Each structure stands twice: as structure tokens, then as C-alpha cells.
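Whiteboard transcription, Tuesday session. T.W. wrote the C-alpha cells on the left side:
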């Protein structure tokens, strides 16, 4: 009986409808007019879209269990390992750093815009280093390992990535004056959009979303981010606003003539949980063991993925440059390539 109760609560929690059920039980529908009530209505959106995405794939006979299996296993594992770690990390950063904020903000529309720009900057910083520092890539690579794109990918993360990300993002925002209530609103909105942009072609074929593709980061842009095509490597680090990708030169539109290849550049078994979850950490350990001297061993931790003490680097920047040099005459993409 306890097992089924736990399973029921886990399913309700995943679907994000526990608060709505409570509202229906109490009959206090006025709460829907509050901020918490609005969040309660929006929370089930991504799980609903995921189920719709799966349903459409089944209906059109495009459903493959392997496309969803590994993200599901990772989600279940993370529920057991890290349910409260990220929340604690956010609370700790607020408690320690809020008194050092440059200035204070309030729940005004102009502070919301300011806060969102700062949040997007903090997200860019966390995400950029997640690709450019080998140790952080070991945490982030689990999210990039799936070789298809669908909404289940949003749940595929190494359990330590969320605390690392939230420490970086919360610290920057608090120090820049984004007060906690405003920060939580922004985190909710950005988290919802950040999940949605993983939507697969089974639900939205063209992820450009029309005119929005020129204004914000769309599913199309995030599909580019998850690609291992040399041109697309290490691009589109932002979540909703593309301002910082444009500022730092990491913005990249999806090219209609270029088929996206999802996944990571190393050989990985996408159906092996241990390889997907711990494979990059194991690879880092092997490189450190065989590297001569303490300096080289430490450099493997902080240098980009693909860096080698031998000088035979295979970083995203090196791979991209080589690809551009090989293809510049035929596709004329040199000016569009990011210098990582």
C-alpha cells in the first residue's frame, strides 16, 4: 500500500497538479487569482505537452521507446538522489549574499525587465562554463547525450548540475540586486520556457515559431544548441532572451539545409545509463591518470572538453575551425561561425 501511495504522489508531483487537486478539494478557487494560483495552472503545462508529444508520436507511428527511456531513468534516479539539494543551494546563496547586493529592487515591471536580463546573463555564465570547463561539462553532458530531441530531455540532468547552476545564477542575481521574490518569479517563467524549448518535431515540426525566431530563443535555436554538428557546437547558451549570445558572439540560427545531429561528440551508448550518466567523469579520470605531472592533471579539469596535454586538441573551437576551412568554399559560412 505504501508503495502505491508513494507512486501516486510521484506521478502527481511529476504532472504538477498537486496544488490544483488541493484547490479543488478546498473549493477555494479565488486562490487562482493569486501568483501562486497562476503558477499552479502553468506548472502542468510541460508534462501535458510531453504526454501530448508522446501521444502524437504513437498515433503517427513514430514513437520509439529508446527516445524516452534514458531521460526517464535519469529522472527517476535524480528523484532519489537530489530532491532537495538545489532548493538548499538557492536558499544558502540568498542567505549569505543578499546583504551584499549592490542595491535593492521591487516587484515593478521595470525591475522585472532588469531582473530578467540579469538572470539571462547569469544563465549564460553557468551554461557557457558548462561547455568550456571539462569538470562542469561532466555534469552537463548527461543533458546532451540523448540523440533525439523531445520534451523528456528536459528531465535528463546529472544530479549535481542543478545545484551548481543555481549557485552560479542565484549568486549573480542576488549580488546584482534582484530580490528573492522577483528572482523566484523569473526562475519559474524561465524554467517553464527552458523546458518547452526541448519540444520535439513530433509536436512542433518547425521550431522557429514564425516571427518569434527573430526576437527570442525558440525550440529551433535550442535544437541547434543540442547538436553535435561542428557549426552548431557551443552556441545559443541563453534560454529566452538571445541578448547575451549576441553580445558574446555565440548566437546561431538553424540552417534549413543542415540536418541536425543530436548527441555528444564522443562515442557513447545512449541506452546505457552508466555511460550516459558517468561516462564523461570516467573519461576525465582516465585522461588525468595518464597525464604527466600535477599541472597537466589539473589542466584536464579546467580546460575545455577535447583539450589534450599532447597539443592534439579536439575542442569544439578546433573542430569548428577545421570544418569551416573545409566547407567555406561551398557553403559560405565563415562569417557566421562563432569563435568559441
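and on the right, the sequence the group agreed on:
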Amino acid at each position: 500500500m505504501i508503495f502505491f501511495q508513494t507512486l501516486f504522489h510521484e506521478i502527481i508531483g511529476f504532472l504538477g497538479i498537486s496544488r490544483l487537486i488541493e484547490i479543488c478539494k478546498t473549493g477555494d478557487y479565488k486562490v487562482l487569482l493569486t501568483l501562486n494560483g497562476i503558477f499552479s495552472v502553468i506548472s502542468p503545462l510541460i508534462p501535458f505537452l510531453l504526454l501530448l508529444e508522446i501521444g502524437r508520436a504513437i498515433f503517427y507511428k513514430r514513437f520509439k521507446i529508446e527516445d524516452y527511456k534514458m531521460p526517464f531513468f535519469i529522472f527517476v534516479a535524480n528523484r532519489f538522489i537530489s530532491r532537495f539539494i538545489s532548493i538548499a543551494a538557492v536558499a544558502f546563496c540568498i542567505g549569505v549574499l543578499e546583504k551584499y547586493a549592490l542595491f535593492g529592487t521591487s516587484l515593478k515591471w521595470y525591475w522585472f525587465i532588469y531582473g530578467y536580463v540579469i538572470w539571462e546573463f547569469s544563465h549564460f555564465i553557468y551554461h557557457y562554463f558548462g561547455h568550456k570547463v571539462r569538470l562542469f561539462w561532466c555534469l552537463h553532458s548527461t543533458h546532451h547525450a540523448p540523440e533525439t530531441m523531445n520534451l523528456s530531455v528536459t528531465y535528463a540532468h546529472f544530479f549535481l548540475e542543478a545545484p551548481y547552476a543555481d549557485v552560479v545564477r542565484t549568486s549573480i542575481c542576488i549580488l546584482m540586486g534582484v530580490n528573492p521574490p522577483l528572482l523566484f518569479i523569473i526562475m519559474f517563467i524561465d524554467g517553464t520556457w527552458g523546458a518547452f524549448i526541448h519540444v520535439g518535431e513530433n509536436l512542433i515540426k518547425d521550431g522557429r515559431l514564425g516571427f518569434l525566431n527573430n526576437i527570442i530563443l525558440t525550440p529551433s535555436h535550442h535544437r541547434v544548441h543540442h547538436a553535435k554538428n561542428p557549426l552548431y557546437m557551443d552556441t545559443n547558451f541563453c534560454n529566452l532572451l538571445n541578448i547575451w549570445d549576441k553580445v558574446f558572439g555565440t548566437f546561431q540560427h538553424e540552417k534549413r539545409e543542415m540536418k541536425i545531429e543530436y548527441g555528444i561528440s564522443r562515442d557513447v551508448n545512449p541506452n546505457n545509463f552508466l555511460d550516459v550518466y558517468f561516462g564523461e567523469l570516467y573519461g576525465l579520470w582516465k585522461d588525468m591518470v595518464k597525464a604527466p605531472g600535477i599541472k597537466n592533471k589539473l589542466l584536464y579539469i579546467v580546460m575545455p572538453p577535447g583539450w589534450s596535454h599532447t597539443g592534439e586538441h579536439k575542442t569544439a573551437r578546433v573542430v569548428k575551425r577545421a570544418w569551416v576551412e573545409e566547407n567555406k568554399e561551398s557553403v559560405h559560412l565563415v562569417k557566421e561561425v562563432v569563435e568559441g
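Someone added at the bottom: The chain has 15 helices and no strands.
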